[in-house]
Specification:
The structure holds 2 protein chains of 2 kinds. By secondary structure, chain A is of the alpha/beta class. In chain A, the strands form 2 sheets. In chain A, strands 2-1-3-8-4 form a 5-stranded mixed sheet, sandwiched between helices. In chain A, strands 6-5-7 form a 3-stranded antiparallel sheet. Helix content of chain B is 73%, strand content 0%. In chain B, helix 4 runs parallel beside helix 9, helix 9 crosses helix 11 and helix 11 packs antiparallel against helix 15. Classes of the chains: A alpha/beta, B mainly alpha. At the A-B interface, helix 5, helix 12, helix 17, helix 18 and helix 19 of A face helix 13 of B.
Chain lengths: 443, 302
């Protein structure tokens, strides 16, 4: 922690600040320099908190999180019960809690859940602004998710589990690629070459909450999008059709079975040596590094990560699994809940948690870019900017009930799966997706 | 006589008082949710937001929605095939277990095992069995040299449909078998003795003695079996989440996905309520069948 402090952040971001100063004054630097350094909320007498969060994919995450919870209880006397659920199960539980007005005080959920029931959540604007100022600002994606109207914060961003490329270095090299492809054309060539070599790759095409996000990349990288800026559904477009044609070619080189893959499938297949390239969080690498099996541990040296290739659209189009923290309005202990979130986001707690997760979650606040978790192992680095580069699933429109519903209904992954597998033509798949999305965006 | 004493001596008042807790529970936990679900189906309610009355719009949309129609087809197919298989396998097992075999009690206990295991747990076991990369079935067949590559159990629509039906049959057979076994044990051996003296073959005994006497219990057990299968959720949710390409989405899983995960409460409720006519028809078929007393007692209906 000695090399991770505010001074170092200021030094490292000086270039960015200087650049900002040239154009728009000291917008980035000044608020940070004048940041309010302390803000505390006074927990209600006898406060007890219940936190519902997604289950860990890496053990270090929950260990560090629980250590912080213990610290919080010791510091404030507020008892905290933490329940863990698979992230697919947190969403329905959160929805039921919001609807019935009873349940956990704080919910750590995924993507744009907060936009499903904004009226049921406690306004945490003061807390978010304090943290933003103190820690160099929130990344735009975090704000898009949690401050949809640009004013009120519905909750706090927690970070994102980066969905990046995980590959076997030796297999990619054996397929004739010295470095990992940076364009979609090269990426397709790599997949073809890997299949020819008998070391195919594969990515999830089932209803996988986290791992089907690569389908967003596929569409966006070719210029397709679910909605335009006015939230008009435009998924049935020539760009989408191009993306689907590309996806079909890519899928032809996948290992069989990916149509059924849910979130855990590619991890297992990768660690078993059955696939050479997939998309995933850093959990595959983390599992290999920490495995008790020497064969798998050995594999860690051969695992590497890369950001998704850039498509015809010419800019990165990354889609990751975003995590949020919501305080339910019905809580009897709003001050305690806010204090809990504040405590967990302060660097004394947040950085050890980032470290514990081994890079599984990328930070939502710029300050933590300098956490040593990203530099202690160069293979972690690609995951660092996952929130920074994240495009919310409702791109290019505004997040809200419709974007949340469309994502939860797997409209894009199903469209890609239908076209890729040939069960529908790309045009038919796009038309169906358009019709379904229009239903959500009718709101 | 005081009011309390009069109350204590009134059969009607006491009957009402004793019925009241049960009636409240029924109203609260059965009627209210069903009523609320029906109402929500006519609204555009979202999670966290009460909706506006939109009449039949949800149903109109769902009628034209390819995924809902596919889910309806899947549900009917799943229910029909699984129920028929469960019936024949269950009946066969019941007849076997009704015989005087060694370790009869042990086998009767074993047959119940799939029913004892929590559904989610058995679903996870089947998910592993069907895994595209680690399936024990595929592995064994490859090792035996019978196939060259792993079977894509869950990755192609028809394979996936059949796979989940097998899981459901495995899960549901014990219920049918044990209930039918209970029914078989109520049939007096004297019928079989009398028919044997008359020269009846085993098949004739089965057809003319066992089946007619077992029919009422078959009606009840199959009604329940069809209801459970039609409304199945856990197996699908764990094994496929409705995939691939929505090929295993049942009405119940689609309703959940749209209402809870997707936040479209009204639409999800409409999907759930759309199941009611099918379920009601099934219950009515059994109910009116059982009302026909001659049929119930093994006679022929007029």
């Amino acid at each position: 922690m000695s090399d991770f402090n505010r001074r170092r952040f200021l030094e490292s971001s000086a270039g960015v600040a200087a650049a900002a100063t040239v154009g728009a004054g000291s917008a980035l630097f000044a608020p940070f320099a004048q940041a309010q350094q302390t803000l505390t909320f006074k927990p209600e007498k006898g406060a007890k908190l219940r936190v519902l969060r997604w289950s860990r994919f890496v053990q270090g995450d929950i260990d560090a999180y629980m250590a912080n919870v213990k610290k919080f209880t010791e510091a404030t006397g507020v008892e905290v019960r933490v329940d863990n659920e698979g992230w697919e199960d947190v969403r329905p539980k959160a929805a039921v809690a919001a609807n019935t007005g009873a349940g956990p005080d704080i919910i750590l959920s995924t993507n744009d859940d907060a936009n499903l029931y904004p009226d049921k959540l406690l306004d945490v604007t003061d807390l978010a602004e304090y943290l933003g100022k103190k820690y160099g600002g929130w990344y735009p994606a975090g704000e898009a998710f949690m401050r949809p109207d640009g004013k009120k914060w519905l909750g706090l961003p927690l970070g994102a589990s980066g969905s990046l490329i995980v590959y076997r270095d030796s297999m990619v090299k054996a397929a004739g690629f010295a470095t990992f492809p940076k364009t979609t054309d090269e990426f397709l060539k790599l997949y073809k070459a890997l299949k020819e070599k008998g070391t195919p790759g594969g990515m999830a095409l089932g209803n996988a909450t986290g791992d089907s996000t690569w389908c967003n990349w596929l569409i966006w990288s070719h210029g397709g999008k679910l909605v335009d800026k006015t939230n008009k559904v435009v998924i049935d477009s020539p760009e989408t059709l191009k993306a689907l044609e590309y996806g079909k070619e890519l899928y032809a080189n996948f290992i069989p079975g990916t149509l059924s893959w849910l979130d855990p499938n590619n991890n297992k297949a990768f660690l078993d040596g059955q696939i050479s390239v997939t998309n995933n969080g850093i959990s595959v690498y983390y599992a290999a590094k920490n495995s008790a099996d020497p064969k798998i541990k050995e594999m860690a040296a051969d695992i590497n990560h890369a950001v998704f290739p850039i498509g015809p659209v010419g800019v990165p189009t990354e889609s990751h699994l975003f995590f949020n923290q919501m305080v339910m309005k019905y809580t009897k202990f709003p001050q305690a809940a806010k204090e809990f979130l504040r405590f967990m986001m302060e660097k004394e707690q947040f950085d050890p948690w980032l470290q514990g997760g081994g890079g599984y979650v990328a930070q939502p606040l710029r300050f933590y870019e300098n956490s040593t978790i990203w530099t202690s192992d160069p293979k972690n680095m690609p995951y660092r900017d996952s929130v920074k580069n994240l495009r919310p699933g409702g791109y290019d429109g505004k997040l809200g009930y419709a974007s949340a519903g469309a994502a939860a209904d797997f409209i894009i992954p199903n469209m890609v799966a239908e076209a890729a597998s040939g069960s529908k033509t790309p045009k038919e798949a796009a038309e169906r997706a358009q019709k379904r999305a229009e239903r959500y965006y009718k709101v | 006589m005081t009011l309390l004493a009069r109350f204590q001596n009134s059969r009607n008042a006491l009957g009402l008082a004793f019925m009241l807790p049960a009636a409240v529970l029924l109203l609260l936990f059965l009627t209210y949710p069903l009523g609320l679900g029906t109402y929500l189906g006519f609204t555009d309610a979202k999670v966290g937001r009460s909706g506006q009355w939109i009449g039949l719009e949800n149903y109109e949309y769902l009628w034209g929605d390819a995924v809902t129609r596919l889910a309806l087809f899947n549900t009917l197919f799943y229910t029909a095939v699984a129920s028929v298989l469960k019936f024949f396998l269950g009946l066969w097992l019941a007849i076997l277990l009704n015989r005087n075999i060694r370790f009869k009690t042990f086998f009767r206990a074993v047959i119940l095992l799939p029913y004892i295991v929590p559904t989610a747990l058995s679903a996870i076991a089947f998910w592993w069995i069907y895994d595209s990369q680690f399936s024990i079935i595929s592995w064994a067949l490859v090792k035996m040299g019978l196939i060259d590559q792993y079977i894509d159990f869950l990755g192609s629509p028809w394979n996936a449909r059949i796979a989940v039906i097998i899981a459901n049959v495995w899960r549901g057979v014990p219920f049918v078998a044990i209930t039918l076994l209970a029914g078989l044990q109520t049939i007096s051996p004297s019928y079989y003795e009398a028919s044997a003296i008359d020269g009846a073959t085993p098949w004739q005994q089965f057809r003319h003695v066992t089946m007619p006497l077992l029919t009422p219990i078959i009606a009840v057990v199959m009604t329940f079996s069809v209801l459970f299968t039609f409304t199945d959720f856990q197996l699908i949710y764990v094994i496929t989440r409705g995939g691939p390409l929505n090929a295993t989405h049942l009405m119940a899983t689609l309703s959940f996905q749209r209402a809870i995960s997707g936040g479209a409460l009204g639409e999800g409720a409409a999907i759930a309520i759309a199941m009611v006519p099918f379920l009601l028809a099934c219950v009515m078929f059994s109910f009116f069948g059982l009302q026909r007393r001659a049929w119930q007692q093994g006679g022929s209906d007029k």
